[in-house]
Specification:
It is built from six helices and five strands; from the N terminus they run E-H-E-H-E-H-E-H-E-H-H. It has a five-stranded parallel β-sheet with strand order 2-1-3-4-5, with helices on both faces. Helix 3 links the parallel strand 3 and strand 4. The protein starts with a strand and ends in a 9-residue tail after the last helix.
Length: 164
Amino acid sequence: MEKNRVLIVDDSPFSQRIIKDILTNAGFRVVACADTGHDGIEKFVELAPDIVTMDLTLPDMDGLDCSKEILAANPQAKIVIVSAMKDEAIIARGTAIGVQAFLQKPVKKDVLVPTVKKILTITETQEPEAPSEDYQEQWLEFFNKAFISNLQDMAGLESKVDVI
């Protein structure tokens, strides 16, 4: 069976729809959407999806706490955080519990699809790649580009922004 079954955990129907449309159009099968952490945990246990997209702000629990419970149920679970909230403390906490990736909302197809594909190619016996020495610098550069792009998209403006 090809590994392409996705569970979306997000309390926003709008965000669920965007993520579902992007992944479905890319050939993934969204097996369920959950709008609370507890519902997400139940659906994960019941459906055993290959990957989970997880929002951080859920009405009943923090998305990282939900991820931690999913990983307790299956340490091989693959989880991608998709949230408007993203900072070094969240990334450090998520990475420590086993989250594989962090994406900024509003998520774009050209970021979400390759990330999900890459995570699904990591086998259960394969050790995750160790972060390079300049990981933080690479992450900051990526974050700055995504932040500027998202601001321009939301404002509908074309402009040059320098980050120092």
